[in-house]
TrEMBL record:
Signal peptide: none annotated. It catalyses: 2-C-methyl-D-erythritol 4-phosphate + CTP + H(+) = 4-CDP-2-C-methyl-D-erythritol + diphosphate; 4-CDP-2-C-methyl-D-erythritol 2-phosphate = 2-C-methyl-D-erythritol 2,4-cyclic diphosphate + CMP. It comes from Roseicyclus marinus. The keyword Metal-binding applies. The keyword Transferase applies. Keywords: Isoprene biosynthesis, Lyase, Metal-binding, Multifunctional enzyme, Nucleotidyltransferase, Transferase. The lineage of its organism: Bacteria, Pseudomonadati, Pseudomonadota, Alphaproteobacteria, Rhodobacterales. Residues 243-398 are annotated as: 2-C-methyl-D-erythritol 2,4-cyclodiphosphate synthase. CDD domains: CDP-ME_synthetase, MECDP_synthase. This is Bifunctional enzyme IspD/IspF. Residues 1-242 are annotated as: 2-C-methyl-D-erythritol 4-phosphate cytidylyltransferase. Transmembrane segments: none annotated. Belongs to the IspD/TarI cytidylyltransferase family. IspD subfamily. Pfam families: IspD, YgbB. It comes from the Bacteria.
Amino acid sequence: MRRASSAYHRDMTQDPASDHPRIAALIVAAGRGLRAGGGLAKQWRNLAGKTVAQWTVDAFDRHPAIRRIVLVTADDAPPELLPQAGATPMTRVTGGATRGASVMAGLSALDGLADLVLIHDVARPGVPPKVIDAVIAALADHPGAAPALAVTDALWRGAGLVEGTVARDGLWRAQTPQGFHLPAILAAHAAFVGDPADDVEVARAAGLDVAIVPGHEDNLKITTPGDFDRAARILERTDMDIRTGNGFDVHRFGPGDHVMLCGVAVPHDRGLQGHSDADVGLHTLTDAIYGALAEGDIGTHFPPSDPQWKGAQSHIFLSHAVDRAAARGFAITHADVTLICEKPKIGPQAAAMRARLAELLRIEVDRISVKATTTEKLGFTGREEGIAALATVTLVKA
């Protein structure tokens, strides 16, 4: 799932007195959840490679506005299936016998640590970032906000036979997260008597207005066995993050008896000049990866003003870029390099270059293209003053 655009940003050291409110997510995962089948509470079941709870935690962990996560579970939740925290601090709290008691436990744990709280059902793993954005935005003007979808189908009343119809005007299908100013909803829960259907009911009982913001069909609540298949299709579609990066580099010829191109020493009557070993192919490919990650270029990570990189082998730079991609969960799925020069001839070396790039990129050689072209004697490459290179890479969120 792509990172949401938001007026807020995650800053763990932010002054509580700043203009940006401290926003927490409270994920309710203490229910037994057995109606969905499988013999295991639905939040701990596998869904497209992760538990339902992990998907839900990740959705809020990735959102830049969320500063803290509280996960409310039963005391006997399976330790091996509990979701792992990401960049956002997460606290686990033991819930109560009812949903209302579990929410109250989570709110109490947040008291004094957040200004706004988004209360979310763990069984809604596909919540889109824009739904979270909408709830947060509405809280600037309202004490409460919740996403919903207008009822569009005809409504009947009956048991086996249709006994009547119900007007659907003004009816909404409620979703979560339901957001509130923390002190207000904490006081409302403390005063509420009974087991509420949701937190909007609690807020309204306390006289708090709750704004309706647009929900989303992807924000499905897993309830029945068939919902797992639908949720998997949603998550496999929306969690896909494909990026393309481009690189371009030039190095002039100078004294030497070979050039380094794509990690291969190619015999030539001149060498390439540069702060490192001047491998224009590897430099271009490295910049393409950094570009796909939106992390600058080689100069950002390896400044030419730093003497430790003088004469360095360029595979060091490329390996760093590959490691950065892996650390952010991306797999490199394809690389295409074009070398632009009159000489040396690239064709005889292309297979060796592809093999070396496969080692450095850690992918199969049939996912790598190395080719060459000339500029028909035009420009600096046509005058054999240097070599230029273009590269394109594709990254996919693993």
